[in-house]
Amino acid sequence: MKQRFRLKELSFPAAGKLLFYTDGLTDGIGGESPEERAGAALADPGPTISNVQALLDPKFNEDDITLLLLTRLSLEDRRI
Question: How is the chain split into domains, by residue range?
């Protein structure tokens, strides 16, 4: 069966964040609503990856975890 995908454009504002992750992340977060808890950790403007790592529970962390976090910088934040 051939998969079909649609192209969609979206706005990605300055300081916006986009996180790609494997299921090992949500599997490694104990408790209820792991996706919501990871989202709340990302909403904090501080050190984002540290916030997500703090949610991981070694009792549930049996899978590999891959994270790719994109943060758009404003022109003022760029260093040349």
Answer: 17-77
